């Protein structure tokens, strides 16, 4: 009886729960478990006694790959950094998309099994097995010739095999890209003694730094195990150049890179199917058509170049770039602009950057990762959109769904209310621009922050101590709770892309 009950619960959890509820359950569970483990582990020093709200805030930030910090990173022990590393890895969009692919394949297996479609009627050949089909999958293969080469597949079998194949391709992509990144960082630290000395003097293990930074960069989180983020390593251009591909391949350029990997194996029937079809057909939105991938690459490069030119002309003499030669400045600015979309690592104090650049960064953080200027839209897409709008008008509840900008405005207003005392007494730190940047950064799961400086206080507080964590670390508990909601909302924004009827 208990086995039957567990089986029914397992079936309902996998097949009945909708994607939105599954995402909420996943991130809430991840954040709570991460908080519990981080709290249970010993910090680096006994003097480190953060409050529970700050630890939970950090756990949510790592799980949602937002990198909004309320605790100095060097206060965490090596074991706590490993936990945060795990949260960032399993909270990354590519990893979650891979889980969805394997789950879809499992659902199809259960569906075919329940429908009695697994009476195998052909033999297994080594070549067939090597193309991703096991004994049960062969039940849907139409023909296998004498040489063992698979011939014609029906649509359902090819779709099923392609989904499984895609899951392993994405897994291989994640592992290979990050292993190359970690090996490159370790090699760089081994060859450049100055960079290694910085890491060693911080009391951080070289392997921990390499793995943590690469995982964070690939997941587009932005956490770095040093208090100053990448500011303390800004002069090491080689390290910045190693991390830039991790930032892009793990986020904005993933669809193009994935399509390139499939194209390399284009002789495979399943790779051909995936390249020929659309990701929407198999429920994998990261698999974009070839033309859209080209437009995406052009858009990503365009945004980085525009930001680079802005920064070059307005902030070439920024105090944060003092001491760098021309080459180091160029690489540093390129690194900064590449992070502006979704990663959040920084080499300068953003509070010293021109407001025009901060506004441009806010635009980049607000835009979805796969924003592209695709000029062509076929008639079927337009018709389906129009029909969808007609249907939505008939749903009263849909009329109360706001646009994402409206929600952000509401969050900013709420935080201005919770921090109204600080806005009045400390207007240079608690400016509306800084609050807006923090909120949009949390929504975009980026992690950019202007920080907090005791030097900017109009009425100097003798008890004030400068800390290397984000601006929101100085907010009230109510403000932090609102920003936690913003981080979750930002991580789930894909479910509200059609909002705004209200």
From TrEMBL:
Write down the PROSITE patterns for this protein, in alphabetical order.
Answer: PROKAR_LIPOPROTEIN
What name goes with this protein?
Cation transporter HKT7
Pfam families per the record?
Answer: TrkH
**Membrane-crossing segments per the record:** 20-41, 83-103, 165-189, 238-264, 284-314, 347-367, 400-418
Q: Which UniProt keywords apply?
A: Ion transport, Membrane, Transmembrane, Transmembrane helix, Transport
Q: Where in the cell is it found?
A: Membrane
Under InterPro entries, the record lists:
Cat_transpt (IPR003445), TrkH_K-transport (IPR051143)
Q: Which family does it belong to?
A: Belongs to the TrkH potassium transport family. HKT (TC 2.A.38.3) subfamily.
Q: Does the keyword Transport apply?
A: yes
**GO terms classed as biological process:** metal ion transport
Q: How does it sit in the membrane?
A: Multi-pass membrane protein
Give a Gene Ontology cellular component term annotated to this protein: membrane
Q: Does the keyword Membrane apply?
A: yes
């Amino acid at each position: 009886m208990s086995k039957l009950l567990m089986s029914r619960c397992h079936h309902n959890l996998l097949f009945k729960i909708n994607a939105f509820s599954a995402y909420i359950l996943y991130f809430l569970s991840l954040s709570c478990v991460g908080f519990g483990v981080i709290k249970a582990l010993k910090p680096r020093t006994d003097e480190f006694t953060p409050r529970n709200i700050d630890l939970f805030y950090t756990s949510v930030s790592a799980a949602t790959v937002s990198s909004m910090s309320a605790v100095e990173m060097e206060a965490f022990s090596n074991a706590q950094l490993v936990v945060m590393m795990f949260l960032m890895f399993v909270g990354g969009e590519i990893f979650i998309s891979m889980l969805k692919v394997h789950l879809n394949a499992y659902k199809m297996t259960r569906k075919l099994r329940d429908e009695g479609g697994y009476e195998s009627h052909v033999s297994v050949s080594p070549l067939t097995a090597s193309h991703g089909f096991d004994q049960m999958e062969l039940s849907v293969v139409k023909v296998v010739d004498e040489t063992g080469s698979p011939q014609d597949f029906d649509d359902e079998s090819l779709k099923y095999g392609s989904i499984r194949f895609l899951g392993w391709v994405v897994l291989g992509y994640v592992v290979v890209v990050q292993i190359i990144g970690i090996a490159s960082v370790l090699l760089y630290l081994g060859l450049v003694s100055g960079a290694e000395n910085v890491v060693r003097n911080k009391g951080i293990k070289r392997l921990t730094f390499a793995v943590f930074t690469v995982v964070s960069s690939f997941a587009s989180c932005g956490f770095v195990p040093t208090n100053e983020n990448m500011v303390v390593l800004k002069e090491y251009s080689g390290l910045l150049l190693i991390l830039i591909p991790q930032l892009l391949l793990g986020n904005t350029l993933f669809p193009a890179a994935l399509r390139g990997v499939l194209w390399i194996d284009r002789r495979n029937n399943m790779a051909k199917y995936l390249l020929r079809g659309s990701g929407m057909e198999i429920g994998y939105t990261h698999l974009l058509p070839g033309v859209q991938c080209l437009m995406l690459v052009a858009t990503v490069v365009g945004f980085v170049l525009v930001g680079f030119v802005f920064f070059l002309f307005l902030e070439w003499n920024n105090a944060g770039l003092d001491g760098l030669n021309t080459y180091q400045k160029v690489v540093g600015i390129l690194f900064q602009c590449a992070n502006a979309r979704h990663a959040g690592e920084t080499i300068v104090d953003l509070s010293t950057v021109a407001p025009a650049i901060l506004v441009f960064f806010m635009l980049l953080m607000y835009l979805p990762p796969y924003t592209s200027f695709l000029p062509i839209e076929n008639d079927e897409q337009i018709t389906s959109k129009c029909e969808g709008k007609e249907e939505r008008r008939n749903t009263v509840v849909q009329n109360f769904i706001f646009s994402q900008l409206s929600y952000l405005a509401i969050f900013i207003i709420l935080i201005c209310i919770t921090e109204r005392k600080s806005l009045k007494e400390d207007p240079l730190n608690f400016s509306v621009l800084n609050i807006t940047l923090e909120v949009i950064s949390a929504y975009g799961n980026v992690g950019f922050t202007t920080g907090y400086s005791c030097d900017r206080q109009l009425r100097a507080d003798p008890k004030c101590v400068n800390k290397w964590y984000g601006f929101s670390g100085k907010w009230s508990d109510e403000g932090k709770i609102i920003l936690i909601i913003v981080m979750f909302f930002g991580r789930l924004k894909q479910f509200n892309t059609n909002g705004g009827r209200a």
